[in-house]
Amino acid sequence: MSAQLLEAFLAEARELLEQIGTLALELEQQGQDADLINSLFRAVHTLKGGSGLFDIVPFTQVVHAAEDILSQVREGQLELTPEHMDQLLSAMDQIGFWLDQLESSGTLDDQAPAISERFTLALRSILGGGGDSAPSDSAAESEEAAPDAPPDWLLRVPEAKRTELAQQGNCIAILYTPDEQCFFQGHDPLLTINTLPNLAWWQIAAREPWPELEAFDPYRCVLGILALSQAPLEDVRHHLRYVSDQIELSIVAASDLDPDATPAAAPTVEDAPEVSDQELPDDQTLNATTQLVLELLQEQRDCLRAQVVPELWTGRVASVGAVLRHLLTVLNHEDLIAQLPEALAQSTANSGQAAALLEMINQALERSRPPAPQPSPEPALEAAASAETPTEPEPTTERRQTQPAAGKDDNRQRVLKVDAERIDTLMDLVGELIVAKNALPFLARRAVEEFKIRPLSKEIKGHFNILNRIAEEMQGAVMQVRMIPVGTAFQRFPRLVRDISRKLGKQVQLELQGEDTEADKNVVSDLSDPLIHLVRNALDHGIETPSERIESGKPPTGRIRIKAHQQEDRVLIEINDDGRGMDPTVLKRKAYEKGLLTEEALERLTDQEALQLIFAAGFSTAESISDLSGRGVGMDVVRNAVQRASGDIILDSTLGLGTTVRLSLPLSMTVTQVMIIRVGDEDFGVIFDTVRETLRLPQNEVQRIKQHEAIILRERLLPLHRLDHLLGLPETSPQQGDLSVLVVGVGSTDFALVVDDVREGVDVILKPLEGVMSSFPLYAGTALLGDGRVLLVLNLKELLQCL
Amino acid sequence: MKRALVVDDALTVRLYHRQLLEAIGFEVEEAANGIEALEKGLSTPTPFDLFLVDVNMPKMDGYRLVAEMRQSQELQAIPVIMVSTESRPRGRDLALQTGANLYLVKPANGALLQQQAQLLVGAIEQ
Fold this sequence. Notes:
The structure holds two protein chains of two kinds. Chain A is α+β, with helices and mostly antiparallel strands. Chain A folds into five domains: 3-134, Four Helix Bundle (Hemerythrin (Met), subunit A); 152-256 and 277-390, no CATH class; 420-483; 486-666, 2-Layer Sandwich (Heat Shock Protein 90); 672-802, CATH 2.40.50.180. Chain A has 30 helices and 22 strands. In chain A, the strands form five sheets. Chain A has a six-stranded mixed β-sheet. In chain A, a hairpin with a 2-residue loop joins strand 15 and strand 16 (708-713). Chain A is elongated. Mean pLDDT of chain A is 78; it is low at 130-144, 261-285, 372-412 and 621-632. By secondary structure, chain B is α/β, with parallel strands linked by helices. Chain B has one domain: Response regulator (Rossmann fold, 3-Layer(aba) Sandwich). A five-stranded parallel β-sheet of chain B has the order 2-1-3-4-5, with helices on both faces. In chain B, helix 1 links the parallel strand 1 (3-7) and strand 2. In chain B, helix 2 (34-43) runs parallel beside helix 3. The longest helix of chain B has 13 residues, at 11-23. Classes of the chains: A alpha+beta, B alpha/beta.
């Protein structure tokens, strides 16, 4: 199997798993809904079908068991309990785990068979009796005479033979795979099978496609033998005792041989009885293609003979006719081809009667039986046919000249599934392009300053503008590709809420809104963990138990609502519960006890501000807070995660009524605009969005209030800070003339920063600080500049905290 | 060039069958269920030479699709290979009853399927 196929399977299987999870939970909520069960069954069935293409038997077994359960549920033979659902879901979790394993290593590990068996047994134990889809292999083996699941190859037995055998009861199916070296070990597979007691039918075929003649090794046995015997199992075993390791035996139930054997009253289409069937020639000297043609001819015969409703007859005859024409052409039976139109017309006219066509098929089969050529009414043609059949060219290799259609766009699929990694690569490249283009303005400046060629500088700038526009459009296009619905981060919640609320004995209804809101894939994946944390907290500490809720006059079932929507270039997400809410007074007291706040600070704190205390590092630990406020664990972790993704988080709560947490995140965060400022001899970056304005200010307009400085800007008093001082840099020489001032805003707070110079704005790719540096919250990250320098970008929010 | 319509709700299986058929020079189109397949079959300017049909599909399953085909003036003579996970004889019997020309158990042997497809549409001649 190609890697591409595995990739496609992994993507499809994950999608199906998600569907299965969602459907299963819906099913549990809405009870036995036929449509839901059907969709669920179908998803599992499709998953099984796909997995069958790969050599992952343990995987397929588990999915198969799940399918059998759902099949019984669908047919009303089984009712799913929450416990069954637990088992089903945990089996699907295992499937998900195996998908990861397949993705990383290409195969399942050694433990897979054992794990598979455990899950399969657990699932099979759910299965009720009655259904024919519940044959447990191990159970069947322990009971001597119980029929097994019929082997796949049973289909190769002609239908007529099966019907005949079915009337005589169960029989033994034998798959004999002789050892490759058997000719040297004194075994004669042919003799062994021919002397089998009560042999009813057998077929011999190559196990693998025959190699080229040069590579063919006649001393190596690569044959497989299929046989049916009506002898008792014991006798068959005894006969095959010397080759028992090369044999697979199974008992085939009469009903599996021919399910329609009993209702003889059904209006079956019978061929004219005088036409006697020609079986496939056993001769192994036949060319492989011819062999295949003969098999297909037999299949057409079975098709013509199968039961039919009158409306389908014409179509059946027409399609069989088309196939026969092709098959007879390959066999070179031109005489038969000539008879075809008449035979078709005859068969079409008499619904259910295809005697003429059947006669033709039998003739074709007869002629390919080389050992005993039948006298033919047309000896000349017959001779030609038998002379050419064996020398038929090997067609598959010769007919590959046709190249795949190029430029047929209308036929191609509209939607393309692309590996996320490839898009990441593309995004990285676009990012590099954006940074690389920033080198051009530097070059333009050097053209003037160093080489004194002003026209060249102008030309470079012109090209920079073009490049800039293309790069921006490209970035926009790639971003568009990376946008995914935030709903993908919500997908785990129904399951999470179900599991946790069951465990806590709470009743919770989850509402999701605005799942279609789109954001960059990275933003969505960064969102995932904080959201889970928040939902978990709401469940753990927000929502009360049913009895508590009834006591406080609420409906026993709590509600958690997750709502997403887009606002300008940000995505806003709201997690709201109708639980017990939080008490700001308790939070304040707690913060004071923990020494996070002084008494004066405590006094000044509004209730709204007090609620935000929950995000303070070191504030919340599980045992101390859950019993007090109903809110909890590690909210500082959540805040940090959100802030790392350049997001904000606010909490709102009313005691007794519930809590709302609001997250705001950028839609995408790959390219950031920063403004370069100079302090002393160093350049720093400031995120463009936070810069309100830049201005030059005469020294004497700086107001002094006690030991603090401030400026008045449009009748507003703004605190003024000197950046060199804040950063602990050596104080620059007292400036002459005007001050360069940057007015920045973080949240609702504006303040002014004195810098030495304000430079240009640039697009950069912000890289978070790594290693030891990552513990400096003062910097939002680093960025590579067009001229190769590394720029430190300030985190103004943190800077504000230091004031 | 021979044209085939691969009908299966599982994307992976469609891809598998597409790759197999394209490798032997078929032009392949896909449909995810019976209804889509009928629509494609009836609206195509160049008729299909072969339908490769899954049994268990949403909206309209493979049996229904083949039955519809066999009653349609335009599609009735197109050879159909049916592929299913059902390995018991009942699956094959039903397929032949609705009018499939060949029944295979999933996963179909790739090399064999290629030859069978070529033979059914007459892509192999003397």
